[in-house]
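Fold this sequence, please.
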Amino acid sequence: MPSLYMDDHAYPAINIAGFIAFGVPVALTLLSLLTGTMNWFYDYGWFTGSALGAIVYYVASRILASSPQAGPAPMMVSEVTEQP
């Protein structure tokens, strides 16, 4: 749990997969709104955006987790209290 609040530890400051999962449904919704195509995507935007965002997040997090840029191991509470 302490690793959530420390820089350069187990969890990154920015969740790239989350930004990708947010951006893809938003882009498709705006595309359907501005062009008039795929009206069903805009009409049911809450459901289509949520489902597509979940799928994109799952795929992006799996792809990004397999990259070599995974952070260091999380610190244990005992390691945090021992540091000055």
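Residues 45-65 form the longest helix (21 residues). The helical segments are 16-35, 39-43, 45-65, 77-82.
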